[in-house]
Amino acid sequence: MKKTIHPTYYPQATITCSCGAVLTTGSTQSEMTTEICSACHPFYTGKKKMIDTTGRVDRFKKLSEKSAVKKEAIKAKPAKIVKEKIEKKNVIKK
Fold first, then answer.
1. Tens digits of per-residue pLDDT, 41-83?
2. CATH number of the structural domain 1-47
């Protein structure tokens, strides 16, 4: 085996999380940064993050109301158009 092709191994490499936690491990990089770790991840801490979904519910209600209004408008329009077409056909035949 060639000895010069392997990367340098750092037995005391530090991993720094965005929450401020510092972990020590062995790696080929001497320093690393991460966004989330076992000290701040909800699965490991047991803390649940509450997400504000009320805005989504309100948005859904608004969209459903708009679609209901559109459906009513569509149902009302064809009935009038059909009557007008029938009247025009009767006028042409006479």
1. 878 788 876 666 667 888 889 999 999 988 888 777 655 555 5
2. 4.10.80.400
Quickly list H helices, the chain.
42-45, 54-93
What's the pTM value of the predicted model, to 2 decimals? Answer: 0.45
DSSP3 helix / strand / coil % (the chain, rounded to 5):
45, 20, 35
**Is 21 within 8 Å of 40 (Cβ atoms)?**
yes
**What is the chain's alpha carbon radius of gyration, rounded to the nearest angstrom?**
34
Comparing CA positions, the residue from 55, 1, 7, 2 lying closest to residue 29 is 7
